[in-house]
Amino acid sequence: MTAGRTDPVVRSPYGAVRGRYERGVAVFRGIPYAAPPFGPRRFRPPVPLPPWDGVHDAGAFGPTPPKPPYSEAFAHYLSDPVVPGDDCLNLNIWTPEPDPGARLPVLLWLHGGALTRGSSAVPVYDGHAFARDGVVCVSVNYRLGVEGYGLFPDTPPNPGLRDQIAALTWVHEAIEAFGGDPGRITLFGQSAGAISIGALIAAPQTQGLVRRAVLQSGPPEASERAKVRRMVRRMASRLKIPATAEAFAAVDRDLLLHTQAEVGRLSSPVVGGPAFGIVIDGDTVPRDPLEALTEGGAAPGVELLLGWTRDEYRLWLVPGGLLDRVDRLGAVALAGAMARCHCGSEVPRGYRALHPEAGPAEIVGQLVTDHLLRMPLHRLADARREPSYVYEFAWPSNLPDLGSCHALELGFVFDTGEVPEARKLAGEGAPQELADEMHAAWVRFATDGDPGWERWDEAHPVRIFGDRAPDAENGLAYTAYGPRDRELALWATDATDAAVPPEESTPASAPADGSPSRSAELRSAVRRLRRTGALRRH
Fold first, then answer.
1. Which residue ranges does the record annotate as region Disordered (predicted)?
2. Within a domain: 44
């Protein structure tokens, strides 16, 4: 507690909460926004809490949702604390001024972790720096894995996404009491958190609740229902129970997590496989979120900040020495990437021509990153009438081989590079100058919608963080124009080449020379790639 100040008490529409003053800002941790999702509520949509009597103590992080631990290889780089307890639908608030008259901009954070791991208690996500700089910061826990994204015939889909909608609704109704402006809520999230935000801003239930959104390394998307259903059925087969929510709800929590980890261990962003994800449900997700945002007129007036890291794929491949293994696989890995990305050989051939120094692992990684991430975000920025801003994080980690990997930018966005958990990815000596640049851009965007560089247009301006301009001697941020355009143009050419009229093409299932079809060859390559163990889900 700050000397001479009593603990802050805020009277929200849901009840009074007592926080703590820490380093000059008021912090409220572990505030419940919905009832505990267990017992009869397990696998069901979130249930609102009635207003409570008395004062709820919000001095510590609340329970984290059930989740399996990271593998040893990934735990070396990523932290994921566990707080036991059932009341896991909770949120945290950092505010410079817990006064209803302050009307400060609000940033609401949704963590990543493949919808199976992560929580708001990760120290890198501490919201102090945002509150220090005049923004109310909120972070949210939501159900994960089969508890949050299992697909069952006897309960509505997407309970984890419904948790997020409940949290957003709570914030919209209560944040004014904590000094926030409910008309200036900016969602921001990374990886699965960004994918969630794509679905949230497109959801009918959230229209008018969000002013801006930041999607970091995650595009709006919906998973194939069959892929999610396969995860559930494989778990049910191992557990020897029906693939229903009722049957799963009777399973011990730890056994369920162990089974989930076993079934999902061979999934990977690079080769796909069964995994949990947001699905079209006719309710919260009535259509694919990317289509809704680019063609359906969803989220009118919502301004966007979109971006990625230069070497996203290195976090998927470096742990356990997998980068070298994929390099050794060579042509098999490239064939697997072609199958994953549904592209012909012209695309990887073009990447080799553009990057002759790159090995197979880099080509595979950039192919998959462009297909899954950069192309959808380009499409989103191109289609929106509202202002969009695009960035690329390019600073390479001080740890071997990680480069500018997935999630590395988070310690800079939150300005938490001093915590040991940030150094697990960045190493020692991360530049504070870069944190100052990125953090300030997010503050500006939340405050007035302008992060500090040109909005997206035909010239494709991209703010590069963590690299020096070719003609500059100093500085760690500059604007480049179309830095990924040459690579992404290859996909358009490939799609054009693939659009051959049927009478001019040879059916893939029956090649003229009797050789296996390309699709069969690529499926075989993917199976070989998975059997090597080169790509395992963390």
1. 493-524
2. yes
Domain residue limits at 269: 9-490
Name the percent of the chain lying above pLDDT 90: 82
CA separation, residue 70 to residues 81, 284, 494 (Å):
10, 30, 37
What digits encode the pLDDT tens for the residues 279-309? 999 999 999 999 999 999 999 999 999 999 9
CB 210 within 8 A of CB 185: yes
CA angle 408, 409, 413 (to 5 degrees): 145
Is 94 a member of any domain?
Answer: yes
**Prediction pTM value:** 0.91
Residues that are catalytic: 191, 312, 406
CATH of the domain at 70: 3.40.50.1820
Residue 480's closest CA among 402, 373, 392, 415? 392
Look at the chain and report how many structural domains it folds into.
1
- Answer for the pair 413, 466: CB distance below 8 angstroms, yes or no: no
Asked if residue 41 is part of any domain, the answer here is yes
Range 343-356 average pLDDT: 95
Give the pLDDT confidence score for residue 264 in this predicted structure. 87
Q: Half-sphere exposure of 306 toward its Cβ, with a 13 Å CA cutoff?
A: 29
Q: At what angle do helices 518-531 and 331-341 cross, to 10 degrees?
A: 120
Can you tell me the distance from the alpha carbon of 157 to that of 150, in angstroms, rounded to the nearest whole number? 7
Instruction: Encode pLDDT of 67-80 as tens digits.
Output: 999 999 999 999 99
